[in-house]
Write a structure and sequence with these properties.
The protein has helices spanning 9-17, 32-49, 60-73, 87-93, 100-106, 150-153, 156-166, 176-192, 211-219, 232-235; strands at 23-29, 52-58, 80-82. With 239 residues, the chain is mainly alpha-helical. It has a domain at 9-83: Periplasmic binding protein-like II (D-Maltodextrin-Binding Protein, domain 2), CATH 3.40.190.10.
Length: 239
């Protein structure tokens, strides 16, 4: 396993001793964070505790399909599922999940000393049931970032050409129209100056099973729409 600094390594060894030889199985979409869990954290966990960890990484739709079929059939193939946060309400409505708060209260000897629900931000409240207990642990967040090349944006010739064409200074976009103009401008600039340059790049797809969700989660907010009309407090199964 990759060299990691583990706090209270002795505790992990002692807590895991009673489960030596057990294998935990999970399924997840293949993402950099989930692959880090599979390739780095899981081997280290097994080394410390003697508990095997088998993480299956696959496509988003296969991840969802495998997990829900296992839960509905109660076959118990997977002990854990690494999912989109919104799916947890559907699982909660059908009593598919373990109450983590209650489980750790019942077996405090399995609770790491540095684990506390108070360490989570309010984002963790999205994973709580009606009783306020935690049913899922937040693991990652896809922050919406906008990167741009300062060497290009600060180039005097480029700045002058852009302002002459669009009648405004070249600066990072704040609207979809500005984003499109910048993309078109730099694509053409690259062609005109024999540069291997495109106006924009994006992690994008023409369509997939979560397109509806991604529109309301990522695109609609850029137009000022932050509430898709579902009140999770009253009907979390629908969300």
């Amino acid at each position: 396993a990759q060299d990691l600094t583990i706090e209270n390594a002795e505790w992990w060894q002692e807590a895991g001793a009673q489960f030596d030889g057990v294998t935990l199985r999970g399924v997840t979409e293949s993402t950099p964070p989930s692959n880090f869990i599979s390739d780095v954290l899981a081997p280290k966990f097994e080394e410390l505790t003697g508990i095997g960890v088998d993480i299956e990484t696959t496509s988003w739709d296969q991840m969802y399909d495998k997990a829900i079929k296992d839960m509905e059939a109660k076959t118990g193939i997977y002990d854990m599922v690494y999912i989109e946060q919104d799916i947890i309400y559907f699982y909660l409505a059908r009593d598919f999940l373990v109450d983590i708060t209650a489980a750790l209260n019942e077996k405090p000897e399995l609770k790491a000393a540095n684990f506390s629900e108070e360490n989570f931000t309010s984002f963790a409240d999205n994973f709580r049931g009606d009783n306020g207990d935690l049913f899922g642990i937040p693991m990652e967040a896809f922050i919406k970032i906008y990167l741009y090349r300062t060497d290009l944006f600060n180039d005097p010739d480029i700045k002058a050409a852009f302002e002459a064409q669009y009648g405004r200074p070249l600066e990072p976009a704040k609207t979809h129209e500005e984003y499109t103009q910048i993309a078109e401008f730099f694509t053409q600039w690259g062609k005109d100056h024999d540069m291997d340059l495109w106006g924009t790049t994006a992690q994008a797809h023409t369509g997939h099973p979560a397109s509806w969700y991604e529109f309301f989660e990522s695109v609609a907010p850029t137009f000022g729409v932050y509430n898709w009309g579902i009140d999770a407090a009253n009907n979390y199964a629908a969300s």
